[in-house]
Amino acid sequence: xxxxxxxxxxxxxxxxxxxxxxxxxxxxxxxxxxxxxxxxxxxxxxxxxxxxxxxxxxxxxxxxxxxxxxxxxxxxxxxxxxxxxxxxxxxxxxxxxxxxxxxxxxxxxxxxxxxxxxxxxxxxxxxxxxxxxxxxxxxxxxxxxxxxxxxxxxxxxxxxxxxxxxxxxxxxxxxxxxxxxxxxxxxxxxxxxxxxxxxxxxxxxxxxxxxxxxxxxxxxxxxxxxxxxxxxxxxxxxxxxxxxxxxxxxxxxxxxxxxxxxxxxxxxxxxxxxxxxxxxxxxxxxxxxxxxxxxxxxxxxxxxxxxxxxxxxxxxxxxxxxxxxxxxxxxxxxxxxxxxxxxxxxxxxxxxxxxxxxxxxxxxxxxxxxxxxxxxxxxxxxxxxxxxxxxxxxxxxxxxxxxxxxxxxxxxxxxxxxxxxxxxxxxxxxxxxxxxxxxxxxxxxxxxxxxxxxxxxxxxxxxxxxxxxxxxxxxxxxxxxxxxxxxxxxxxxxxxxxxxxxxxxxxxxxxxxxxxxxxxxx
Length: 522
Ligand code: FE
Ligand code: CA
Fold this sequence. Notes:
With 522 residues, the chain is α+β, with helices and mostly antiparallel strands. Strands 11-10-9-19-20-21-22 form a seven-stranded mixed sheet, with helices on one face. The protein has a seven-stranded mixed sheet with strand order 12-13-14-15-17-16-18.
């Protein structure tokens, strides 16, 4: 009988039961495997009054067991093993499973003593030469915890995608605002502004404690990138606000915590933990081939970007610019991806195009790719933080797309907390240039937008290639992909401040095979 257990045994049991309050995740899927992730936490979830338990913070390494099975009941276990959660990596666990069969769902769980994680599901991608009949993609970005509930993930899980792409701003580094904001907060925490490794670890723990986010991680593999708030608002490459030394320390802490908390391969730490201060510290850009149906080129538009044109190093990002107010904007040397990643993308587009290997080339990146002129042509005014601040770099991507000519190209984005659907022209400076791709920039999962819908309407009116622009809704995006059609559904919440919020489809757009550009169908 439980009540007869000695007190130390109670504590031990409770401690083990609470080792996995941050859930599990899987990611980086290949045709024969994936990464399984968890992170142990001994004490309470930082920043909130969590369910009280007697667990103490973990000190030394902890060994956990993992299992992968064909069935949810784990009667047919196909692989198992053990892994060590090391204090040096925040007691995170990254298991790289290989040797599995392509295009199949698997179930997995972690265990330690009598503590077992909930059963989770993940999958391998189709074999390299398989042109499968369909797949369902979901993508999201910008999930500021205090500004909304994660009802979006509850609905995304019901939509049952095969793969999630996370496009950046998984956490936000801020403390609570000193004064109540215009839009009331959905929830509050007590964490300070993140400045060092432990601060970022605590922030991920807070976010990861959300049950809907955990459930979506349990539902399918994720391929993740980051944006600025995983470190500091509007940072660019090696430049942030404040002193250079303090920013670089922050960047190093934020980068390590990102690796610790994401289902990434160990090879993402390109120079190991010792190399986290170097120019390429974490390899976040990645390529995922879904057989011959689609290739997901996941980009990193943060780590290697030049400072915004006409921004003073160490100071905050400024307002809108044009080539007249800021001639440096037009400098052809300026880059958003960095030269190594630009070449990597060119090579990937060439691979997709060779023998029409890939039906859909998907360029997944952080922010809006298409031009948004805030003024009526011929006057010009642009956001310096998006691709509009790096027009020569954008043109290099467009030129590569025309030169390599993959069969179909679709851009995905986030960051601006607004839904934007655009026709992507070969040259935005020439509105009569051909449409060569489509763009579906998704709104934020929970982060507030701060842009009035009337402002967004005015921008759309001045930019005929923008088919839809909405700032007033939060949500996520579903894409149904077949060999002949790409269908985007913009999924929007009724009320992000409510955990029980409903969801609806704002609009559906289709792209047809070999017909660049998109049209609204619902
Ligand atoms: Fe954001
Ligand atoms: Ca951002």
